[in-house]
Amino acid sequence: MQGNSLFLGRLRGPIKSAMILFIGLTLVLYAYLVGQRILSEESYGMFEMIRPAGRPLVQVMLASLSAALIFASLFLSDTKGAIETPPDGFFDLVSVILGRLAMIMTAFIVLVMFYEVVSRYVFSRPTLWANELSLWIACFVFLLAGLYAMQQRSHIRIYIIYDMMPWWAQKASDMISVLLIVGFTFALVWGGYTDAENRFMRMETFGTAWDPPIPGIVKPALLIIIVLVCIQAVSNLIADWNKVPESHTPADEIDEVEIENIRRTLEDKN
């Protein structure tokens, strides 16, 4: 397995073990809390999950969940996808790891919404928190996916004019694009830092029955991640500076690996 490792090497095994350990611990603690909620009057629900102060068991479960997400992101980012651009340098690794975290969080959104659908339409007991929790997670998925897309150079780009330019003009265009990103980032941080700090310091909540601190967490996260996107854009410019110019055709958009997987699936069914 070390031969397929991108950066963990010998740490791949321990990281995997830690991931399994914390996932198991999180599931055990969650099952215990669910059982306690069913059998005991003194129980913890989703309201207490975002207010863990004075509740050691909830704090341990949240810490275990956080550790599980961190180790899972590290482990899953140690392999390269079939059509992925491999990470090249520290900032690329950070972006890939956070991209894997976004992928995991997408699965959490599906689970939350599935729970809400079953609870609402099967048991006629809709929740107060599912929609807001999925919104909360989706905010981070959106932000982290943007960072991952920047590392993969997969944002929408139009090459018709770019491909006709000489090398020096292409590099000038790249520099202008990055300077625009840097300028936008500076303006966003300059204009939004005070507001983000105020929201975070008072941990501004959503103003609903569940009342999660979405504004108090998402606004600072927005500024932090946009700075990471800016750094990644500069890193891409440096990494791609001496690469041979590429010519782009519509065939570049065809995912041969995915087509082959679909073909195999159809053949297996037949």
UniProtKB/TrEMBL annotation:
<dbReference type="Pfam" id="PF04290">
    <property type="entry name" value="DctQ"/>
</dbReference>
<feature type="transmembrane region" description="Helical">
    <location>
        <begin position="59"/>
        <end position="77"/>
    </location>
</feature>
<dbReference type="GO" id="GO:0005886">
    <property type="term" value="C:plasma membrane"/>
</dbReference>
<feature type="transmembrane region" description="Helical">
    <location>
        <begin position="89"/>
        <end position="113"/>
    </location>
</feature>
<feature type="transmembrane region" description="Helical">
    <location>
        <begin position="20"/>
        <end position="39"/>
    </location>
</feature>
<keyword id="KW-0813">Transport</keyword>
<feature type="domain" description="Tripartite ATP-independent periplasmic transporters DctQ component">
    <location>
        <begin position="109"/>
        <end position="241"/>
    </location>
</feature>
<keyword id="KW-0812">Transmembrane</keyword>
<keyword id="KW-0472">Membrane</keyword>
<keyword id="KW-1003">Cell membrane</keyword>
<keyword id="KW-0997">Cell inner membrane</keyword>
<dbReference type="GO" id="GO:0022857">
    <property type="term" value="F:transmembrane transporter activity"/>
</dbReference>
<comment type="function">
    <text>Part of the tripartite ATP-independent periplasmic (TRAP) transport system.</text>
</comment>
<dbReference type="InterPro" id="IPR007387">
    <property type="entry name" value="TRAP_DctQ"/>
</dbReference>
<protein>
    <recommendedName>
        <fullName>TRAP transporter small permease protein</fullName>
    </recommendedName>
</protein>
<comment type="subunit">
    <text>The complex comprises the extracytoplasmic solute receptor protein and the two transmembrane proteins.</text>
</comment>
<comment type="similarity">
    <text>Belongs to the TRAP transporter small permease family.</text>
</comment>
<feature type="transmembrane region" description="Helical">
    <location>
        <begin position="133"/>
        <end position="151"/>
    </location>
</feature>
<keyword id="KW-1133">Transmembrane helix</keyword>
<dbReference type="InterPro" id="IPR055348">
    <property type="entry name" value="DctQ"/>
</dbReference>
<feature type="transmembrane region" description="Helical">
    <location>
        <begin position="172"/>
        <end position="193"/>
    </location>
</feature>
